[in-house]
Design brief:
By secondary structure, this protein is an alpha/beta fold. It has one domain. The chain has nine helices and six strands, in the order H-H-H-E-E-E-E-H-H-E-H-H-E-H-H. Strands 1, 2, 3, 4, 5 and 6 form a six-stranded mixed sheet that branches. A hairpin with a 4-residue loop joins strand 3 and strand 4. It starts with 17 loop residues before the first helix and ends with a helix. The mean pLDDT is 97.
Length: 272
């Protein structure tokens, strides 16, 4: 058997959150990526598991959630509960904004790995859409098919949309940009419809700085930049709505908060 796949997949989750996280996914009918029944995948390189290990503990910790959001956006004064906690996983919104066929958290439609909500000093509610990466690497494979283009191209080219006017939609049908495109469109629709009372959305890419195979590989022929972050910002009307952060830096201001030693020690030993 492969040495990076656990025989007991539940051990892929930190012990301090294990049973609660499994119950959260089960009770919200969220499937685990390549998981069986109520257990996550045993694959230790799973970015979904990495996201849960980093953020599930934050769900009931306003102080940690606030520190995270302030690091992303210094105008944030405090974190707000999203639904049942300060972090919600595999979020798809309260209705199907993108008109995709499916509407199931974590499966067959655009899902956000984690969302958080913050209140700024100006009393604006900002929704943060976090996409988590770990060891991913993508080949330049064209994912364009007519069925997809009918759903996304009208949104990509909308004068009200988040993308610059001279963008060729087909450039966005290469991973990771295909996923980034869908999540950016979803953030735009969240803003437009004031999802969870928000007036602004920020897409956050949590990618380890050491994963240069992902960060420096521009798979789409029509996009250009030293990194995927540069390429992405170049096609956004408001580049500041996209933020890329190393997971360690995202949580570093939380390391000295009370009752975080076991959690931080686990993350350091496994991911950082």
């Amino acid at each position: 058997e492969r040495d990076f796949v656990l025989k007991d997949p539940s051990l892929n989750l930190w012990a301090g959150i294990r049973e609660d996280a499994k119950h959260y996914f089960s009770s919200n009918h969220i499937p685990w990526w390549k998981g069986l029944s109520e257990d996550p995948t045993g694959h230790m390189l799973s970015s979904q598991v990495a996201c849960v290990n980093h953020l599930y503990y934050v769900r009931q910790r306003k102080d940690i959630a606030t520190a995270i959001l302030k690091f992303i956006d210094p105008t944030v004064e405090e974190a707000l509960p999203v639904q049942t906690g300060y972090v919600e996983f595999e979020y798809i919104g309260t209705c199907q904004y993108l008109k995709e066929k499916a509407f199931t958290r974590g499966a067959n439609c655009t899902s956000i790995d984690a969302v958080m909500l913050g209140m700024t000093s100006g009393k604006d509610r900002v929704l943060f859409l976090l996409e988590w990466k770990y060891t991913e690497f993508y080949e330049p494979k064209d994912l364009y098919i007519p069925r997809r283009s009918k759903v996304y191209d009208p949104l990509i080219t909308s004068p009200e949309g988040p993308f610059v006017a001279d963008l060729t939609p087909r450039s966005l049908y290469y991973e990771p940009f295909y996923q980034m495109m869908r999540q950016t469109l979803l953030a735009w629709q969240f803003e437009k419809h004031a999802e969870l009372g928000c007036s602004r959305c920020i897409n956050v890419h949590a990618i380890p700085e050491k994963n240069r195979n992902l960060k420096e590989n521009i798979t789409a022929p029509g996009l250009h930049g030293k990194t995927i972050h540069d390429a992405w910002r170049s096609i956004l009307k408001i580049p500041q709505k996209y933020v890329a952060i190393d997971p360690y830096k995202l949580l570093k201001d939380s390391c000295d908060l009370p009752d975080t030693r076991s959690w931080i020690a686990y993350l350091k030993s496994r991911y950082w």
